[in-house]
Amino acid sequence: MANFQDFVPKSRRIEMKFSEFVDKMHQTEEQGGSERVYLQQTLNDTVGQKIVVDFLGFNWNWINKQQAKRNWGPLTSNLLLIGMEGNVTPAHYDEQQNFFAQIKGHKRCILFPPDQFDCLYPYPVHHPCDRQSQVDFENPDYDKFPNFKNAVGYEAVVGPGDVLYIPMYWWHHIESLLNGGVTITVNFWYKGTPTPKRIEYPLKAHQKVAIMRNIEKMLGEALGDPHEVGPLLNMMIKGRYDHGLS
Hints:
Layout: H1 18-31, E1 38-42, H2 49-56, H3 60-70, E2 75-83, E3 88-92, E4 97-104, E5 107-112, H4 117-120, E6 154-158, E7 163-166, E8 171-176, E9 183-190, H5 205-223, H6 229-242
Antiparallel strand pairs: 1-2, 2-9, 3-8, 4-7, 4-9, 5-6, 5-8
């Protein structure tokens, strides 16, 4: 396992005003090339009044009914996403329920259920890209990630007015379609259903992922060095197969 300190991320985070982001996006479009900019802004009392008014115009009655129907926990946050055509969000999974509401433009979404965990090679829990796949979908290295050949997912294209439900622990790779202009999305994040008092067996795929994450976190804390977790975790994963837990 490579030292995390040597890891060079493919993107960088910069804080700026919305007007500065818009100017930067137009400049990037005019320059062409492969660079992209992508805005992620939590919708709270720090955003402008006009955005708040638009946000309150959502069909909250429908959204609240979905939450009650599925017995989810409380709404934790809403995220405004604005990007250029060609933006790519690499495959990853989240630990909350997600309503992915498309406002403008079209996005291609490829989703994989939690049981595809071994095919998508997530980074370690303590890595800066925790919960993200190490596989480059555009140029997969099958020598390094052979199980990716066996990955089976679902594809959907969302447009204005569409709401895509992305369950917690489901992997999702998302692209803003080319020649589609600027894309705007709002995420609705919810806590999952309360933990059942009685665990039923066999465990479901997302429960196994949660257990593996907790074990990995505890190992990192116990060892005092998260870089030592990789080899030990690999041994445990092999043992998991030997005992029929996967």
